[in-house]
Design brief:
This protein is an alpha+beta fold. The protein has a domain of 70 residues. The protein is built from 19 helices and seven strands. The strands form two sheets. It has a five-stranded mixed sheet. It has a two-stranded antiparallel sheet with strand order 6-7. A hairpin with a 2-residue loop joins strand 6 and strand 7. Helix 4 packs across helix 5 and helix 11 crosses helix 13. 34% of the residues are buried.
């Protein structure tokens, strides 16, 4: 078999920021209509190695099942796609059955709630829980009510998870070095923690996961910025329980910002989400608002690239005047550096950058203390934010992170050389 005829490998060992050409074919088959969808499906099937389909592509199977089925496609692979659809439907129905009680508990405690990401997308745009896989559901509460929301969760049987850290999936090696991260105690959810983090995961009595947000994005934008989302939100219900959800423009903005970043899992689902929002006949995108949000949250670069990709590759309607406006918006050097970092594979020095950003946050809160006292207090601050029982775990974790990143960079470089 020649190289031209050989199936394209679809497993991405090193992650990425944008879909590969092969992944894009499946994406197009999932969101286009008519003969264009069927043609890209045939090209994908002719090229794919069915034994090496990556996880990101598999997440599109339910959407491809419905879209290709509507075009009359008959193929044995549709049975596999159908199984993924039914499995997704069952799992999401189980998740959505738990949401009303949670929303009612927050409402009784006087806490407003907004559904984000998958839950909002399924309710307002996909309108079929079988089409969009979820591993958890995301709920936003006002920043001022974060502590009250966590107290409410505790009272109805939800428990906190381990504080999310880099290298989170590698707890076992870390434990062998002497530290086993545990669930974050309720008393450790302090105003300091809320000021640095934007969300935390909680597990319900039946094992379902809720990602509780008190800020929309993990950034140092002032908390009042989220008022844009609250003021522009729309009302919705989950089995009779009222809640809010982002309007279509805000949801598109959130989807794009959250999606445009380097990830070990191939980044496909957010593009399908964006296409579903924009293809919804009930949707009208307020482009001026989208531009304003990008400027307010300092997310011009990811929005510019996301909209250009959606227009060029997924054939979605984005006014040329909007693309031109994004190209002409001012962007600071710090935004450019931050964007380069978030869209490239992690590097060794990025670990120090993360520590530096945390120090900037700590310094803003402690400037009256003076430089010396601020530097002395910073390790205790990191211990609190990382959820460490002992300060001695901090150098251990830093060493672990440096070794882990060096290993990953070495493996990635070796893999690239092996492909030459």
């Amino acid at each position: 078999m020649s190289n031209r005829e050989r199936p394209i490998r679809t497993v991405q060992q090193e992650g990425g920021c944008w879909p590969t050409p092969l992944q894009e074919l499946l994406l197009l088959a999932s969101v286009l209509r008519g003969t264009a969808s069927v043609e890209t499906w045939r090209r994908w099937k002719a090229s794919v190695d069915l034994d090496r389909i990556d996880p990101g592509s598999r997440r599109l199977f339910p959407l491809a099942y419905r879209n290709l089925g509507a075009q009359g496609v008959k193929d044995p692979l549709m049975n596999i796609f159908g199984w993924f659809y039914r499995s997704t439907l069952s799992e999401n129905q189980r998740r959505f059955a738990q949401i009303p009680d949670l929303l009612d508990a927050f409402r009784c405690a006087g806490i407003e709630t907004m559904l984000l990401k998958g839950a909002a997308l399924i309710l307002l745009h996909y309108k079929d829980p079988g089409l969009r896989p979820m591993v958890d559901f995301d709920i936003l509460v006002p920043a001022a009510k974060a502590a009250a929301a966590i107290k409410t969760l505790s009272e109805i049987g939800w428990t906190s998870t381990v504080t999310r850290l880099k290298g989170f999936s590698e707890i076992k090696p870390l434990a062998r070095l002497g530290w086993t991260p545990g669930a974050r105690p309720m008393e450790e959810f302090t105003q300091i923690y809320f000021s640095v983090r934007h969300a935390h995961e909680f597990v319900g009595p039946e094992g379902l996961v809720c990602d509780l947000h008190w800020r929309v994005f993990p950034s140092d934008v002032d908390l009042d910025a989220d008022q844009e989302f609250w003021q522009g939100s729309v009302k919705t219900k989950v089995d009779g329980a009222p809640a809010f959800a982002p309007n279509p423009t805000d949801l598109l903005f959130h989807v794009c910002v959250h999606g445009v970043k380097w990830n070990l899992l191939p980044p496909l689902r957010w593009l399908a989400d964006a296409a579903t929002i924009m293809n919804n006949p009930e949707t009208e995108i307020n482009w001026d608002r989208l531009i304003a949000l990008a400027r307010r949250y300092r997310q011009v670069l990811p929005l510019k690239d996301a909209l250009a990709y959606l227009q060029r590759h997924l054939r979605l309607s984005v006014p040329s005047i909007v693309l031109e406006a994004f190209r002409n918006l001012p962007v600071s050097e710090s935004e450019r550096v931050g964007y380069r970092i978030r869209t490239r594979p992690p590097r060794l020095m990025d670990a120090f950058l993360e520590i530096y950003l945390l120090y900037k946050s700590f310094n803003r809160q402690n400037r009256p203390l003076g430089l010396i006292r601020t530097l002395k207090g910073f390790p205790k601050f990191l211990q609190h934010i990382f959820g460490m029982e002992r300060l001695s775990y901090l150098p251990l974790y830093v060493l672990f992170e440096l070794v882990r990143r060096f290993r990953d960079i070495t493996i990635s470089s070796w893999n690239r050389l092996a492909k030459l």
